[in-house]
Protein 1
Amino acid sequence: MAKAILFDAYGTLLDVHSVAALAESFAPGRGAALSQAWRSKQLEYTWLRTLSDRYADFWQVTGDALDWALEALGLSIEPAARQSLLDAYLDLAPFPENVAVLESLRGAGHVLGTLSNGTPQMLEAGLKSAGLRHLLTHVISIDAVRRFKTDPAAYRLGTEVVGAAAADIVFVSSNCWDAIGATWHGYRTFWVNRNNAPLERLGATPHGVGRTLADLRAFVG
């Protein structure tokens, strides 16, 4: 049995696009587009800031990405609506199967945790709201090293907190680039390919692939 199973939070445990319905209420007909542009720019900013050694925490990055997406789509909303959208990141919905899967894994004796770009405060609020926090022994934020994934320092946090080699830890992400980053670092990796996306051309392959988190149970045994 692996020493621990560590999950990416945003997009894997928490559905980042669950904000789309709220976005639609502020920008009718544009909610899905806003959610997609917001998420894409959010990730882009994490990579650019780490490459350039210009760290800002994930809360600021998320707000900056929202502002960019609103302007890019030509949307003007009230400050209170903007704050409501940002606050929605503290209350994201879990994917439908996730609570039951984590309960099953924990019941089978697995130690569970997250390894996430989110700030500690964002993770605690979001995981509690989603009904997942009590199932997780470790809630690990890259804020401790001020380097976003896929920087090696971010993945190294998981081994340091768990106290085990990367090869003895399973890392799970719905982001293929994230699963590959963890593979490069030596983790056993599982990619939750919810959208039937093609494999990223990065010279590595996750050790396991499934369509939902439920497929992880067969992978870890």
Protein 2
Amino acid sequence: MAELKELMQSADWKQEKHVPVIDMPKAVKKDEIMKVTVTVGKQIAHPNTTAHHIAYIEVYFHPDGEKFPVLIGRSEFGAHGAGAQGVDTSTIYTHPEISVAFKAGKPGKVLAMSYCNIHGLWTSSADLKF
């Protein structure tokens, strides 16, 4: 049986539509509120149909020197075209993007994870510097 860490996939987001893309400031001041936006399919659009979609995105912060990351935010995406008449009969589709704001007392890593119902878990990270 595989470990969860063995199931996490990563790639260059400019060439792979499943990778969560992290947009954030390159540096902030200690305890300054900053905004982080994570999008799946930024460069190459990801399908959003009942059969193939991004189900959720999670954003974590792992402070330098700490053992565990902290969950900053999670967003689930529930509208993939399913309607009362069946699959892909609705005109309502969510876009896999989440924005969160937080402050940190020390530098570290912003970690993002997304889940595609067909292709599994995808991850990326970005350094937060002061």
